[in-house]
Structures are given as structure tokens and as C-alpha cells.
Amino acid sequence: MNQEILKEIDSIDLQSKAPETEPQRQYYFIAKVKEHVKALTEELGRTPTCCVTTFGCQMNARDSEKLTGILRLVGYDIIEDENADFVIFNTCTVRDNANQRVYGRLGELKGFKKKNPHMKIALCGCMMQEPTVIEKIKTSYRIVDLIFGTHNIYKFAELLNTTFEQKGMIIDIWEDTDKIVEDLPIERKYPFKSGINIMFGCNNFCSYCIVPYVRGRERSRNPKDIIREIEALAAEGVVEVMLLGQNVNSYGKNLPEPMTFAELLQEVEKIEGIERIRFMTSHPKDLSEELIQVMKNSKKICRHLHLPLQAGSDRILKAMNRVYNKEQYIALAKHIREEIPDIAITTDLIVGFPGETLEDVEETIEVVKEVQYDNAFTFIYSKRTGTPAAAMPNQVPEEVVKEGFDKLLKTVQETARERVKRYEGMVMDALVEEVNEHDATLLTGRLSNNTLVHFPGDKSLIGKIVNVKLDKYCGFYYMGSMVE
Ligand code: SAH
Ligand code: SF4
Ligand code: F3S
Known about the structure:
The longest helix is centred in the C-terminal third of the chain and has 24 residues, at 398-421. 37% of the residues lie in helices and 20% in strands. The protein contains 14 helices and 19 strands. The strands form five sheets. The chain has a six-stranded parallel beta sheet with strand order 2-1-3-4-5-6, sandwiched between helices. The chain is α/β, with parallel strands linked by helices. A hairpin with a 6-residue loop joins strand 15 (427-435) and strand 16 (442-447). It binds S-adenosyl-L-homocysteine, iron/sulfur cluster and FE3-S4 cluster. S-adenosyl-L-homocysteine binds next to strand 13.
């Protein structure tokens, strides 16, 4: 974090009242929590520990880096173990299994809390924006000390302070916000790559999806703030950035001075030190020719486009409120492939949307064969309370869903294998991300097209971009060797 801000925090007079303006108010509470953590350290005779557990998407991962930034600054030791003095779950509710995992893990914390009277448990993120969830926690999980949502995450320091000064479960959930608070501390998971929020929320209301309800309306960050943040990251050694939003293609439409996503990308491209640019996610309905041309002419934008299809049947797409049809989607994907032949296209697919038949799934399979995805995430439809699809009458029986799902998955895997295999023998640049999890003599790198490659090398190369020959395709990844 900016040294001047750190100095500002250290010089705060805690006898004075908390400022009303942000982020100064949060700086004040950071200073205050620091004092509480100091006292706790003396009481325990050791530095208190904390653990941040993230569920869900890249956006949640980025939010967790904001939580971690504050926890580090106030004096906690950050550990991976949930048997800690402060545990926070940053939750996801996009599908029901995400929720169930949170309840399961929360149950496990009960034992830890019994043994450690100092332990505090906090919950935040998308799941907390659902009133039924809050009710369930209030009745069945009294061990929780703090609950907040997606709209007031910037107030984490202030809420954390309350846990030291007030007993009982603290709950602070906002229905929506139009506020974006800049300049709070962030601790990155990787020194060499980083996610950057360019927008928050979603206005698309796909009929199956809960995200617009739990993340609120679409808000774009000011481009100057985004560029300033990326420049600072580059100065700290970050070489790859991932611009994050639920629908990046509609970036900038509601800014006081409107700007397109393609224009923003061109600004990011100019930043010295940044060598790779990625983004997530693109809604097909808003993908512009301007963006395709900017990608095509860029030296830094990675050869990867995640373009969620969801379903191939026009009837289902319509009921999903996706605003494109099968033919338009295929034409778009073909056009992108013509303009940028080496691009990897990946997608998200849902099986079992209300009313979907096996014939409809066949249409999804047809698109998969036609587009030849490099990878696809295949999900079973999950009924989300409050969404229009949840109220639709013809929910699909489990056996039918399973049959369609298995068939689709098989096609997805076969086509992806064919598609990715064609790079075998080529030399491509890879950003070295880590030492291989299973074999410490190998490094794991990511290609521009997002495929992973494992190759022998020394860990001093982590964070560097190296040339790798893709020797052997092994089903979704490559084994390779470094070349000069
Ligand atoms: N904004 C992104 C998606 C965010 S959610 C986009 O539109 O591309 C990530 C994926 O989860 C979605 O693409 C969709 O495939 C899946 N998903 C969302 N809601 C779902 C539900 N109710 N059941 C199953 N999968 C769902
Ligand atoms: Fe959900 Fe659709 Fe918004 Fe993506 S675009 S977050 S699927 S509502
Ligand atoms: Fe989940 Fe929220 Fe992301 S619901 S997928 S964590 S926006």
C-alpha cells in the first residue's frame, strides 16, 4: 500500500471522532483495530492469527485480498488453517452447492471455537445478501460474531472494530449501493499477477441467476482510478492483470464521461511493465466489433475469450433472458476465430433449466461441436430463490438432467481435447506461476490462451515469462520444456 497512506494511518488521533468521509473513516478504524489487536497480542502472549476462506468467483477472490489487506495491516498473522483467532468466510451463492459447502465448514468451526474463547467468526459475500440465509444463521449458527454483505465490504475495518467493542452477533447488510470507495489496503495472493475490478454488479437479470440480486446494479469504476491502480501494480512488479466484471463489455456506459471497454483496454495496454491483459466475463450480447479489433491488434491482450453460451436452444435462451440466439452466437464465435485465429474460446453451460428437454441439450451439443471450445464449464441448473426461473413450473427431473449433463460433458471433453491438442510441438510464452503441486522439479506456467504447461525449471523463474516448447498434450494441459 501507498506509503503516504500508511503514514496517515499511523498519525491518526484516536481521541478525535471518526471522520465521516471515506476512505478516511476506514483509516481511522484501521488505527483503532490496531490498538485492539495489540492488546489481544499481549493477552495471548503471541500474535493473533486469522484465516480468510474464499468461495466463488474471481470477484470474490479479489474482495478477499481486500479483507486480507486490512487484517495484515491491523496486525494479524495470516494463516491457511481455519483453527485461527479470526476466521472469515467470503461466500458465494451462485449455485446451491456453494451454500451447502459454507454451512458444512461453519459446522466444523464449532469445535475450534469451543476450545478457543478468543476466536471470532465472520461471514460476508454474496450469500449474506439473502434474507433466508441470515435467518438460518441467526437460529442455527450462534457461533458467528459478524455478518456483512457485498455492498459494505469497504467498511470491514469499522465492522471489525465493532467485534472488539460490542458483544453478540453483529449484522450489517445493505440492499444496494451506488458507492465505490477507492484506496483501501489490498494484499495480493500472487506478487506477479492481479485481478482488478473495473465494474461491480450486473443489470442483465438472466432468469436463472442470483448475481444481480446479491451484487446490485451495474457500476463502473472511473477509468482514472483503474489506470492509477494498474500503474501502481506494475511498479510493484505485476506483469499480468485480469480486468474483472460480470459483463465487462458494458463497461463505462453509465460513467459521467462514457467510455467503451475497448477504449479502456487500449489505455491499459499503454502501461509500461504490464505484459499480459486478461478480462472476465464477456456477455455475447454486448461484444463489439471494436473489441475484436482491439484484441486482434494488441500485443498484450491474451489470446483467450470466455464467452458464456449457457444453452444452445433458442427457446431456452429466450427463457433464460440471454438476448441472443444460437445462430447469432455461432456467427459471433466464427467471426472472432476468423479475425483472431489463435484465440482460445471458453464457455459456461447450464443443463436442466426449467423446461429443457434432451432435444434442447442436443442443440447445446451442436454449438459445442460447431464452436470447438478450448474449455467449457458445465453446470447443473440450480434453483435460486427469488429468480424468475425458480418460479417456472416445469423444473426438470434429476434423471433427465443427469443424462443430458453426462452427454454434454463427454462432447465438451472430446472437442476440447482435439482443439487444444493442435498446439502440440509449438513454442509459446508462458507466465511461470508456481512450483508444480505434485512434482517439485517442475514449474507450472500459463499460456496466453490460458492452458497450463508443466516443465522442468528453477523456482527463481516464478513471475517471469519464458518460452516453452509444448512437447506433449496430456488432456487439458501440456508437458513442455524451456527453450531460449
Ligand atoms: N456474469 C457471468 C457469469 C457469472 S456466474 C456471465 O454472464 O458470463 C458464472 C456461471 O455460473 C454462469 O455463466 C452460469 O453458467 C452459472 N450459473 C449462474 N447461475 C446458475 C444457476 N442458477 N444454476 C447453475 N449455474 C448457474
Ligand atoms: Fe448472472 Fe447473467 Fe449477470 Fe452473468 S450476465 S452475472 S449470468 S445475470
Ligand atoms: Fe458467487 Fe457472488 Fe461470484 S454469487 S460466482 S461469488 S458474484
